[in-house]
Design brief:
217 residues, alpha+beta, five-stranded antiparallel beta sheet, 4 helices
Length: 217
């Protein structure tokens, strides 16, 4: 579990994510960006789930090979195949054996659609579980995604406003645990906004999590 939220709004497409990476037991094993953006394509891709080391470089390289935004969206399943291959290689060589949960991964896309002149978000998962019940390796559009989900729903419908509500979302998701009672939202809570004129990045909140230790409230 990690924080990877997405919202398609009038002022842009948003990704709100944390930066901590965890082992199977919930220890923080590192901190790093989980969102890769390409201003030429006006597209950002967030990563969540189990991915091999270097996956962000793979995403960056893949984005650079795409001729335009339309082709990038049409070819997104090829990126899933590439990352899945890297994941399988890492398991064979032992790099991910100590981190078997969750199986698979999800890519969360945020972009400014140049054809429709509006913000859009979508997900694509390597398996059914990470695809949120959709067909694996199939792009699915949506307006609002909270991940991890919270109970109760504090912003029903599409009432969440990323520009004003991001800090309180960070607080709520920080307190969410997985099914074993482990906290898995930490590091820095960051915002990525894609709009008609480009891409903006902003840190929302920083937690003093220590590498080698579990997240503690």
């Amino acid at each position: 579990m990690t924080a990877m939220n997405a919202f398609a709004r009038a002022d842009g497409a948003w990704l709100l994510s944390d930066t901590a990476q965890y082992d199977n037991a919930g220890h923080v094993i590192g901190k790093g960006l989980k969102v890769t953006a390409d201003e030429r394509l006006n597209l950002a891709i967030g990563q969540s789930g189990r991915l091999a080391e270097g996956s962000s470089r793979d995403v960056c390289t893949w984005l650079a090979t795409q001729p335009n935004q339309t082709q990038a969206l049409a070819n997104i399943a090829s990126l899933v195949d590439l990352l899945d291959h890297r994941d399988r290689e890492a398991v064979v060589h032992g790099a991910l054996i100590d981190n078997p949960v969750p199986k698979g991964f999800r890519l969360t896309l945020a972009f400014w659609d140049r054809r429709d002149s509006r913000a859009k978000c979508a997900i694509i998962g390597s398996n059914a579980a990470m695809a949120c019940g959709s067909q694996p390796r199939t792009l699915r559009a949506f307006k609002t995604l909270f991940s991890p989900p919270m109970s109760p729903d504090r912003w029903p419908g599409h009432s969440f406003n990323p520009s004003t509500d991001a800090a309180i979302l960070a607080k709520y998701q920080r307190a969410v645990t997985d099914d074993r009672g482990i906290y898995r939202v930490g590091g820095t809570f960051q915002a990525t906004r894609i709009h008609s004129n480009g891409i903006e990045f902003r840190d929302i909140h920083h937690w003093p999590d220590v590498v080698g230790k579990k997240v503690a409230l």
